[in-house]
Amino acid sequence: MALTGTYDANAVICTTDDLRIQGFAPDSMIEYERLSEAEVTVGADGFAAVSKASSRALVATLTLLETSPGYRILADFWTEQENTVGPFTVRPFYMEDIINGDIVSDPQAVIIQGPVMSKGARVGTREFKIFLPDPTEKFAQNVQD
After folding, report:
1. 12: which residues sit within 8 A by CB, 6+ positions away?
2. Looking at per-residue confidence, does 97 or 139 come out higher?
3. How many C-beta atoms surround the C-beta of residue 126 within 10 A?
4. Hey, where are the domains in the chain?
5. pLDDT of 145 higher than 50
6. How much is the mean pLDDT over the chain?
7. Quick check: helix, strand or coil at residue 83?
8. pLDDT value for 88
9. Other CB atoms within 10 A of residue 77 CB
10. What number of other Cβ atoms are within 10 A of residue 88's Cβ?
């Protein structure tokens, strides 16, 4: 059987405010959700039309171990934001997979949800949701088999 590719979680670099976020959960690191998708409308006579999504916005969910340096960075940002009167704090967001070349970035990212506290017998994970209003996405190109 031939090896078809490799993956290394350490090759995924994520930064915000030029600080590297490290200490991701073992089963879920970063997940993206597109806030609007193309929509299909089918009329009574079967005629169909597709409407292009008007927004490219994403929400990135970062899942971190509660003991990680990345958790501490984002928790400090979240606490600062929650304790500040006025607008949300805007920070740059950057993620790159240096093995396959995937990149997601946005200079105007905002943390929109901080973690909820929970405790258990083992180290827990915490989620942060970061809104990317106008992301730049570059998908893997020239990936070698």
Report:
1. 29, 30, 95, 96, 97, 98
2. 97
3. 23
4. 12-138
5. no
6. 88
7. coil
8. 86
9. 19
10. 13
| C-beta neighbour count of 64 within 10 angstroms | 27
Q: What pLDDT is stored for residue 8 in this prediction? A: 81
What is the DSSP code (8-state) at residue 75?
Answer: H
State yes or no: pLDDT of 80 exceeds 60.
Answer: yes
* Length of the chain counted residue by residue: 145
Q: Which residue has the higher pLDDT, 133 or 6?
A: 133
* Distances, alpha carbon 2 to alpha carbons 8, 34, 43, 132, 141, in Å: 18, 35, 49, 39, 21
Beta bridge partners of 94: 15, 105
Greatest Cα pair distance in the chain:
59
For residue 19, list its beta bridge partners: 16
Architecture per CATH, 12-138? Beta Barrel (2.40)
Is the Cβ–Cβ distance between 65 and 95 less than 8 Å? no
